[in-house]
């Protein structure tokens, strides 16, 4: 009996030749993929295809292989409507279709069955402790799962095999000097940028003014024409135009066809989020909603771009190196730690104004003393050991000039931020937790990427950041948003060879005299304008998230069912109201309210998604609505 496979949606991304069909996330790669498979058979799939998610269905040989790209940049979902919710070895005998798609929504439309929500995913959605955890295969629907990054689901003659398809070689660069690593980074990054852009006629890039987007735009414009797009959110805190203009000025050439466009994000937040939720079929994940990118995608489409290159991934693959101070503390290298603290504060002192009402009038030496005391006390509190306190009094006095009575005075007064806001309350009702139906969960395992190689704690954190749950889901959202405009979006920093380099950069080299991101600054010095290469600030978009929440909340309150909506069967009104008080506290800046905006926004995103599920089930004449 032949295996039934249905691929849902994305008709422009499949190629059929004879008995073989290939669906590929990349519009331009499908032909290459199917020709390679027809020529070499299954052995062709052993070749590295880290940049693409795809499904091959060979009807003649009763064979299916579904591969997800190495970093999980491009989504790949499957659905198997069985009681277990996942395919088993007798899938062919059961004669039950196995659904694949790059979109959850397309699967829902294709299988025409009742959509059952996944309560476990909702609980995780509000769990701040796991917000940076590794991605797993769950979606917000039971029976619909994501294939994890760098993994493949292979079915041959009814036999199921899960296979890891990509591995990191962390030894090949560990003997290189920092200069060699920096030179290699430059060549590898250049190659990644042009490889991602290869095959597209008109290249676009999101130029935000940060180090990452500026590096991509500069590399492209050194050899090719480029359309750049800047999202202007009209906020003093997020003023990036001076950095964008520095990049444009450096690479402007007479007679160039390169063009730059400044776009404004839409203000109809409820409409935008509702439409995006219907396209993505899951609640928005980001505190700063993805609606900020909608006008960029629309403008890029109108201006004829085929692909948008994004700087997303730079933080994950490169990191900042500020854990260098933690490393020096743990190794008790006090002399170097005192130097590192002075270097760090030279660039980031404004972040620590909460340490003293007279911070702005204090000398540099006094600021270092206050920061050192704050740094040490935070470590003591973490370890909860008086022994650590007494043993460090001598250190603080010798290297920072801090006297014992200052230390104990600080401990007694419990130094905290003057503008500290309350912690958020538990949003999901305990009763909802009690009714969970536990399903087996497949979580991404970074150890599988490195084999027997022993990772340092910092390297483990770097990999965890690369394959985090919100990061992967953000990629899925971006794919859906840009696919709607028939555009591809890609990320040159998410490159396996680049990660193999950066994971061998020491914290001291990344720290770069307190600026952070040393290897990127050094490797890109020929490309980046000095103004951008030396910047240590980051764009601040909290105000946009704040405006988005307020707009969504005003619209939600006008609904007739605002206080009887099914979302309140899941979410505690008390916790939500508590966050509202903080969010509308006029004495606090938007950036100080992020935790509460993050949680309260998710309540509204969840409500919009529950509306989508109800409408979907009504469309297919399911009378009893979603299963809660």
Question: How is this structure best described in words?
Answer:
The structure is a single chain. The chain is an alpha/beta fold and 628 residues long. Helices cover 44% and strands 10% of the residues. It contains 26 helices and 15 strands. A 6-stranded antiparallel sheet has the order 2-3-4-5-9-10, with helices on one face. Helix 11 runs antiparallel to helix 12 and helix 24 packs across helix 26. The protein starts with a strand and ends in a 9-residue tail after the last helix. Mean pLDDT is 86; it is low at 414-418 and 622-628.
Concise overview:
The chain has 26 helices and 15 strands.
Shape: globular
Taking the sheet with the most strands, its summary is: 6 strands, antiparallel
Number of strands: 15
Q: Report low-confidence residues grouped into runs of 5 or more.
A: 414-418, 622-628
CA(first)-CA(last) distance = 37 Å
Portion in strands: 5-15%
Radius of gyration, taken over Cα atoms and rounded to an integer in Å: 26 Å
| Helix/strand class | alpha/beta
């Amino acid at each position: 009996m032949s295996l039934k496979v249905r691929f849902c949606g994305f008709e422009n991304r499949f190629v059929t030749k004879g008995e073989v069909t290939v669906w590929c996330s990349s519009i331009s790669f499908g032909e290459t993929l199917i020709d390679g498979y027809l020529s070499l058979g299954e052995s062709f799939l052993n070749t590295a295809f880290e940049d693409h998610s795809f499904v091959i269905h060979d009807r003649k040989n009763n064979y299916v292989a579904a591969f997800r790209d190495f970093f999980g940049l491009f989504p790949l979902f499957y659905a198997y409507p069985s009681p277990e919710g996942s395919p088993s070895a007798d899938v062919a005998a059961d004669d039950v279709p196995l659904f694949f798609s790059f979109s959850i929504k397309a699967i829902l439309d294709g299988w025409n069955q009742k959509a059952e929500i996944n309560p476990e995913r909702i609980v995780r959605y509000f769990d701040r402790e796991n917000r940076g955890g590794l991605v797993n295969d769950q979606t917000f629907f039971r029976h619909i799962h994501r294939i994890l990054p760098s993994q493949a689901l292979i079915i041959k003659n009814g036999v199921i095999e899960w296979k890891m398809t990509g591995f990191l070689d962390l030894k090949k660069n560990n003997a290189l000097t920092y200069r060699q690593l920096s030179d290699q980074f430059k060549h590898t990054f250049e190659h990644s940028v042009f490889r991602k852009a290869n095959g597209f006629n008109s290249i676009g890039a999101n130029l935000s003014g940060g180090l990452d987007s500026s590096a991509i735009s500069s590399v492209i414009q050194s050899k090719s024409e480029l359309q750049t797009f800047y999202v202007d959110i009209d906020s003093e805190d997020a003023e990036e135009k001076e950095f964008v203009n520095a990049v444009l000025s450096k690479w402007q050439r007479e007679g160039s066809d390169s063009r730059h466009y400044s776009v404004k994000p839409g203000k109809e937040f409820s409409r935008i989020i509702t439409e995006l939720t219907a396209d993505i079929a899951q609640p928005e994940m980001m505190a700063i909603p993805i609606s900020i990118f909608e006008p960029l995608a629309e403008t890029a489409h109108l201006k004829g771009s085929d692909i948008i290159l994004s700087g997303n991934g730079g933080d994950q693959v490169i990191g900042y190196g500020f854990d260098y101070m933690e490393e020096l503390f743990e190794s008790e290298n006090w002399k170097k730690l005192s130097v590192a603290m002075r270097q760090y504060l030279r660039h980031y002192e404004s972040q620590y104004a909460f340490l003293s009402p007279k911070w702005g009038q204090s000398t540099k030496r006094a600021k270092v003393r206050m920061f050192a005391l704050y740094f040490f006390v935070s470590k003591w509190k973490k370890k909860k050991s008086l022994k650590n306190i007494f043993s460090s009094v001598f250190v603080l006095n010798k290297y920072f000039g801090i006297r014992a009575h200052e230390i104990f005075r600080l401990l007694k007064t419990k130094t905290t931020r003057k503008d500290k806001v309350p912690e958020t309350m538990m949003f999901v009702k305990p009763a909802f937790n009690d009714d969970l139906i536990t399903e087996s969960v497949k979580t991404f395992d970074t150890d599988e990427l490195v084999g027997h190689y022993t990772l340092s704690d910092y390297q483990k954190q770097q990999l965890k950041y690369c394959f985090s749950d919100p990061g992967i889901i953000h990629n899925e959202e971006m794919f859906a948003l840009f696919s709607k405009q028939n555009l591809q979006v890609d990320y040159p920093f998410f490159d396996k060879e680049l990660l193999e380099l950066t994971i061998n950069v020491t914290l001291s080299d990344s720290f770069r005299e307190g600026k952070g991101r040393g290897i990127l600054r050094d490797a890109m010095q020929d490309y980046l304008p000095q103004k951008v290469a030396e910047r240590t600030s980051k764009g601040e978009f909290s105000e946009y998230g704040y405006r988005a929440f307020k707009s969504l909340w005003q619209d939600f309150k006008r609904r007739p069912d605002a206080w009887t909506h099914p979302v309140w069967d899941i979410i505690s009104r008390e916790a939500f109201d508590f966050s509202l008080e903080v969010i509308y506290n006029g004495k606090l800046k938007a950036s100080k309210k992020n935790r509460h905006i993050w949680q309260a926004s998710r309540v509204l995103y969840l409500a919009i998604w529950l509306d989508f599920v109800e409408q979907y089930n009504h469309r297919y004449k399911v009378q009893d609505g979603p299963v809660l």
